[in-house]
């Protein structure tokens, strides 16, 4: 699992890694030790996005603005959002006018949460939208929290202290950039 790569870098068990920017932000952001060596490897394009049911009370809702203006979201009955990523939730929702929101963390299968009645919306990674459509969900305008693709990351401490890590990093970076120029 990609999150383990970030955790292993933080613990010192790994020196270098390749993960999605979303994973780096979720599990490594805020660490003084982890750095992004190359941020555009042009692979694994996806985005973190808000999705809601296509039907019912959401049938005519097509934007974050319309979602925020729905009168049913109150302090007593907030919008319930199933999430797999925790780093963006309150700030993004507040910036988009949603004051009354609760979050439930799920390790996968967030798409099923609205149909099960345990969430009104989801915040999840979307690559081509097939899983959303299969679960009668839709993305909404303004609902993209983060654009993501694969990034090359490293432990700053390892690059400084571990013999050969800096040289290996430079060689890998040169090869990655040569490949990107060739395509």
UniProtKB/TrEMBL annotation:
It catalyses: 1-(5-phospho-beta-D-ribosyl)-ATP + diphosphate = 5-phospho-alpha-D-ribose 1-diphosphate + ATP. GO terms for biological process: L-histidine biosynthetic process. Residues 1-177 form the ATP phosphoribosyltransferase catalytic domain. GO terms for molecular function: ATP phosphoribosyltransferase activity. It holds the Pfam family HisG. It comes from Glycine max (Soybean). It comes from the Eukaryota. Its EC number is 2.4.2.17. Keywords: Amino-acid biosynthesis, Glycosyltransferase, Histidine biosynthesis, Transferase. Pathway: Amino-acid biosynthesis; L-histidine biosynthesis; L-histidine from 5-phospho-alpha-D-ribose 1-diphosphate: step 1/9. GO terms for cellular component: cytoplasm. This is ATP phosphoribosyltransferase.
């Amino acid at each position: 699992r990609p999150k383990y790569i970030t955790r292993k870098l933080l613990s010192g068990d790994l020196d270098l890694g390749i993960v999605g920017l979303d994973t780096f932000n979720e599990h490594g952001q805020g660490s003084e030790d982890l750095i992004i060596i190359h941020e555009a490897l042009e692979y694994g394009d996806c985005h973190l996005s808000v999705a809601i049911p296509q039907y019912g009370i959401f049938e005519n809702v097509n934007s974050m603005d319309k979602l925020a203006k729905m009168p049913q979201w109150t302090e007593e009955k907030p919008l319930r959002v199933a999430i797999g990523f925790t780093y963006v939730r309150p700030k993004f929702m507040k910036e988009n006018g949603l004051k009354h929101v609760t979050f439930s963390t799920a390790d996968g299968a967030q798409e099923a949460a609205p149909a099960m009645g345990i969430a009104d919306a989801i915040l999840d990674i979307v690559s081509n939208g097939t899983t959303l459509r299969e679960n009668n969900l839709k993305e909404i305008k303004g609902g993209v929290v983060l654009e993501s693709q694969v990034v090359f990351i490293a432990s700053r401490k390892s690059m400084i202290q571990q013999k050969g890590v800096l040289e290996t990093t430079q060689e890998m970076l040169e090869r990655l950039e040569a490949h990107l120029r060739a395509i």
